[in-house]
Design goal:
With about 160 residues, the chain is of the alpha+beta class. It has 1 helix and 9 strands. Helix content is about 15%, strand content about 35%.
Length: about 160
């Protein structure tokens, strides 16, 4: 066999193997069934203690064993960045661009849908900080943890492309 024949044979074997792996993976699910995933939860920050004069100017959250599937409202005048890392350790960072776009605490009522990962040993957790200000020159950071969040299991699964 010459070199060209060997390369062609190796290529054909690689294509056939890939095809067989794809077909066998698809055969494990009934036709039309959604791909496997965790379940979706609706997240609120119901006990945010800010004064009447304070406005939210930023927030940072870290999610363990989950991904941000949806932010229910991305306000105008905000910069929002989501890092849905394939490790299922997700980060979201948001900050106000102009002071007029600052939010009140009610923004965090049902503000995110998170898909939890059920095949990982690390428990699902959310923690981070909310940044508030009264005058936009001085800020106060409020640390929040899982105990501060309300997580409801009644979120509807989203039609998205799961990362698995």
């Amino acid at each position: 066999m010459n070199r060209r024949s060997i390369v062609a044979l190796l290529f054909a074997v690689a294509v056939a193997t890939t095809f067989l792996l794809l077909v066998s993976g698809a055969a494990k699910r009934p036709a039309g069934a959604p791909p496997p995933h965790g379940h979706f939860v609706l997240v609120s920050l119901s006990a945010l203690h800010i004064t009447e004069a304070e406005r939210v100017v930023g927030f940072d959250f870290g999610v363990t064993s989950g991904r941000i599937a949806k932010i229910t409202d991305v306000p105008i005048g905000w910069n929002v960045s989501v890092d849905n890392d394939p490790s299922w350790n997700t980060k979201i960072h948001a900050s106000v661009i102009v002071a007029a776009a600052a939010l009140d605490g009610s923004y965090f009522r049902d503000f995110a849908v998170i898909e939890t990962e059920s095949n990982i040993d690390a428990p699902f957790e959310i923690k981070g900080k909310i940044v508030v200000s009264t005058d936009f020159s001085k800020v106060r950071e409020i640390q929040v943890g899982m105990k501060d969040f309300t997580v409801r299991d009644d979120a509807q699964p989203l039609k998205s492309h799961p990362s698995k």
